[in-house]
Amino acid sequence: GMRLAAKIYDPVYFNHRDYDCDPFRYLDLLYNQETAAYRHLHARGLGAWIPQYYGSYEMDIEHPGIGTRQVRLILMEYIEGVSLELRDPADFDVITQKRVMELIVKAESQFYAVDLRYEDLCMRNVIVHGLVGFDPNCQPRITFIDFSNAIISRTDSRKKGWTKACFLLPGVYISPILRWYRGYIPKKHDFTQWCVWNWNHWLCETFADDFEHITPEMVKWVPDD
Description:
about 220 residues; alpha+beta; 2 domains; 3-stranded antiparallel β-sheet; 6 helices; globular
């Protein structure tokens, strides 16, 4: 039969000592952000990049002699595969490494095109399928998981000068040539070992068709560092 995975948001098992926050309110925020992200992406035809979503639920957990507490969960498709974090890029040829990174960049750019910021983009949240060591003909596939920190908005209050959403071109595809150039998205922090080639040259070559669609307004996305 169908295999499902349940993600449970239980404050009792949340390591709140590492966070200066109310664990109940914080997990409620993560739960709402993740359910909203799955609905948002599936509704916009991007379900091929993420697990199938089967809804959000609440259940009561009883504590004998104390009472009950309400816990929230979401049900999603169980994804076969291995986290990219557990794969050694040295086991694969450069052609395969580039294919994996192209999929990651392409998917993240499509998420952003529908105004979803995937804040937890990192190797542990990329599930890879079909990787074959030193086979330049292999066609890997990837699935993204963990959208609890995803935000459906381009507005980022943490960045000065970018607080007005209308300036961020909502709903417009922004080429990764701009947004990933020099590693603006976490590439340089988390995907470095998968990028042993000249990153910017590869980026411009892989997404060369985007050049004619880049406007002066989009160029504002080129990072300053």
